[in-house]
Amino acid sequence: MKLTDISYARAVMEKHGISPQKRFGQNFLISENVVSRIADAAGSGESELGIIEIGPGIGTLTQKLAERYRKVVAIEIDTSLLPVLADTLSDYENVKIISGDAMKTDFEILVREEFGDMRVAVCANLPYYITSPVIMRLLETNGLFESVTVMIQKEVADRLASKPGTAEYGAITASSSYYAEIEKIFNVSPANFIPPPKVTSSVIRMNVHKTPPVSCKNEENLFRVIRGAFAKRRKTLSNSLSGETSKHTKAEIEAVLVSLGYRADVRGETLGLSDFAKISDALEL
């Protein structure tokens, strides 16, 4: 029987006396088509790849990953699910379950100890409440991963994949584009989960850059500029940045922007990563 069979999935949960926990944002996948498509996207068919899965739940996606890739290490924060996973993944010798919190995991050590010289990708059905922190933590691992494929709330996926000048474009869009090229793959309706979430989900794949697409003198300052640019949305960039620093007045920031070829009243949401890099090099916050 398959874990994508809702009757079987419920029987497994009943056998172990567990149910999806709201405090962990758990919504278990029960769609054969969806889990297969996510598993395929995670490594684009490169069977020798190692996979880190975050939040395996009852093991539905984990099984598909194990069938496609060389090794899977799944990190599960909910200790009540460990006996379930030991049961549902007992036939897969290339799977290892680690009890832990992805936000506290040292991924460099994990990759070195579990995968050696294997290339590694990440795959996850992320709880909505920790989506952005987990994504940024994974991307900030200095090219440790080939790619990061995650299922997240559609609203966040639209924001991550948006372009400058659109309503969805924001600080996380510009910041994440420094680390990866983001591709939105497909949407997932609530009916594909137990329990059904209240919103539509989306699967995105982030192809991690080997080197950043732009150069800058100071990465920390670049991200300060990006965060500052969106601190006061629909305000001019000089207004937003002046509120984030005591080093420069609004007039001084406007002068720098004009010297770089921008209008004095330019808005942050119209600028791309290369623009922020140029401004960062000329303006230390």
Shape summary: elongated
Largest sheet: 7 strands, mixed
Distance between the termini: 58 Å
Q: What fraction, in percent, of the residue positions are helical?
A: 25-40%
- How many helices? The count is 12
- Report the uncertain regions: none
Please give the number of β-strands.
9
Strand content: 15-25%
Structural class: alpha/beta
Mean pLDDT metric: 93
Verbal overview:
The protein is of the alpha/beta class and 285 residues long. Helices cover 39% and strands 18% of the residues. The protein is built from twelve helices and nine strands. It has helices at residues 6-16, 32-43, 60-68, 82-88, 107-115, 131-139, 154-160, 171-179, 219-229, 237-242, 250-259, 273-282; strands spanning 28-29, 50-54, 71-76, 95-99, 120-125, 147-153, 180-188, 193-194, 201-208. The protein has a seven-stranded mixed β-sheet with strand order 4-3-2-5-6-9-7, with helices on both faces. It has a two-stranded antiparallel sheet with strand order 1-8. The radius of gyration is 21 Å and the shape is elongated. The model has no long low-confidence stretch (mean pLDDT 93).
Strand and helix map with partners:
Elements (H helix, E strand, L loop, with lengths): L5 H11 L11 E2 L2 H12 L6 E5 L5 H9 L2 E6 L5 H7 L6 E5 L7 H9 L4 E6 L5 H9 L7 E7 H7 L10 H9 E9 L4 E2 L6 E8 L10 H11 L7 H6 L7 H10 L13 H10 L3
Parallel strand pairs: 2-3, 2-5, 3-4, 5-6
Antiparallel strand pairs: 1-8, 6-9, 7-9
Helix pairs in contact: 2-3, 8-9, 9-12
Summarize the structure.
Helix content is 39%, strand content 18%.
Q: What attributes does this structure have?
A:
285 residues, seven-stranded mixed β-sheet, single chain, alpha/beta, two-stranded antiparallel sheet, 9 strands
